[in-house]
Amino acid sequence: MGAIIPAHPMHIEHKHTVGKAEAIRRIDTLLDGLMRQPPGGITIQEVSKSWSDGVLNFSFKAKKGFFGVPLSGTIQVSDDSATMDCDLPALVTTFVSEDKIRNDISRHLAGLFPV
Q: Is residue 3 part of a domain?
C-alpha cells in the first residue's frame, strides 16, 4: 500500500467594507453561482452548506472525468473581513497548484469586495 498524502490546509482572509450582512449575502450568491456553473468542466455534487452566526460550513464533491474529491471548509464573516479555511486534498493539488487555487479564490473575493 502507498503512503497517504495529507491534505493541504488553506487559509485566505480578505478585508471588506460592506458590513457583515451584506458580505454574507454576496458570498452566498457567489457560491450558489459557482455550484450551478462550476469552472473548467468540473461537476459539483453532494452540496451541503449552512450558515450559523456568520460562519458558513460547506462541503461538496468535485468531479472531473473519473476523478472525484470531497472538499469542505468554513468561511467566517465579520463586520470587516471574510476568512476561508479548508483542506485541499492532495489529488487536487496534484493537478492544480495551491497557488493557482489561492489566486482564483482571492480574485473572486476581490470581485465581491472591491477596494
A: no
